[in-house]
Amino acid sequence: MTRQRPIGGKVAGQVSVPWRGIPGIGEPAFDWDFAAGHLPTAVRDALTRATVATAHDTGGNVVTVPSGKLCFDHDANGKCLGLLAERNWDNLFTYSEQLDHAVWTKGGTPAVTITANHGTSPNGETTADRIQVASTSANTLLFSQNKPLSGATAGREFTISGWLKLNSGTATGGYLRFTESGGAMGNELHQSPEFTVTSDWQRFSFTATLTENDRTVLVCRFQMGSTSSEELDWLGWGFDVKESPYLTSYIKSTSSSGSRDADELIDLPINSTSEGTVR
C-alpha cells in the first residue's frame, strides 16, 4: 500500500504550533509562518507586482518595497501583521508629498503657510512639510484638491488619508472633508469626526459614500477643528485619496496619479482572492 504524504503546516497564526505529521505517516509538506516572515525562497519568488508598494517596518516607518517583492506589514508596536496583499489602486491626488505645489489650494483667511521639506517624515526622509497658521479660527481650510468625477456617482465610495503631527505647540484638532459638487443638487458635505494632532505621527483617514448621481467634482479638504483657538504648527506628509471603501497602503504621486499594481501569488496553495494580510 502506498502512503501519500499529508499536506499540513501553519500559515502564520498569532500563536501556532506547526503540525508535525502523524507518526509513521510523514512530515508536513510545508511549514510557513507569514507573520514571522519565515518563507522559503520559492514562495518569496512566487509574487508578481509590476510596481513598488509601501508597508510599515518593525520600527513603524513607512518603507518602499521594490516591484516583485513581498510586503510584510507591521503594527505601531512593531508586531508583524503578516503578508500584505492588495489589489491595484490609484492615488487620485497629485504631488502627494508636496503641499507647497500650486495644485494644492491653501486657505487664505487666515493665511496658511507651507514650508517644504521641513521635518522628518514617516519614511525617515526630510520630506515632511510644515503647515502654519498664525492666527486661527474654527473650521479653517488648510489645503485641498478638487478631483473631477464622471459617470454615475451615487453610491461610490472614497477614502482620504494623510499623516500629521505637531511641529510645535499643543495638541490641536482637525477634520477630513469631502464635498460633492456639480449636478442639479446643491453641494453635499461629508465630514469626519474631529481628530487630534499630537507630537506623534498618525495617519488619519475618512471614508464617505456619495449620495447624488450627477456630480462632476469631488472637493477633498484638510481643515482645522471646531475648537481651535491658537496658532497652528503641524507637519504633514503622504496625502492619499482613492476610490475605495476602506483605507489601503499609501501610494506616492507626483505630476500624475500614483498607481500600485495588484499583488499576485502564483502557484501557491492559498485559495483566496481577497486582499489584506495573510497571517
Topology:
Elements: H1 41-44, E1 47-48, E2 53-56, E3 62-65, E4 71-74, E5 80-85, E6 89-91, E7 105-106, E8 112-119, E9 128-133, E10 141-148, E11 157-166, E12 172-181, E13 188-191, E14 195-197, E15 202-209, E16 217-224, E17 232-242, E18 258-260, E19 264-265, E20 276-278
Antiparallel strand pairs: 1-19, 2-3, 4-5, 5-20, 6-18, 7-10, 8-9, 9-17, 10-16, 11-15, 11-17, 12-13, 12-14, 12-16
Structure overview:
This protein is mainly β. It folds into two domains: 107 residues, no CATH class; 169 residues, Sandwich (Jelly Rolls), CATH 2.60.120. The protein is built from one helix and 20 strands. The strands form six sheets. Strands 7, 10, 12, 13, 14 and 16 form a six-stranded antiparallel sheet that branches. β8 and β9 form a beta hairpin. The N terminus is likely disordered.
Total tally of structural domains? 2
Please count the beta strands (DSSP E, at least 2 residues each): 20
Q: What's the CATH architecture of the largest domain?
A: Sandwich
CATH class of the largest domain: Mainly Beta
Rg, alpha carbons: 22 Å
Give the fraction of residues assigned to helices: under 10%
CATH topology of the largest domain: Jelly Rolls
Measured between the Cα atoms of the first and last residue, the distance is 37 Å
Number of helices: 1
The largest β sheet comes out as: 6 strands, antiparallel
Mean pLDDT: 82
N-to-C SSE string, H for helix and E for strand: HEEEEEEEEEEEEEEEEEEEE
Which quaternary structure do these chains form?
Answer: single chain
CATH homologous superfamily annotation of the largest domain:
Galactose-binding domain-like
Low-confidence stretches: 1-26
Which class best fits the helix and strand makeup?
mainly beta
Gross morphology is globular
- State which percent range the strand residues make up: 35-45%
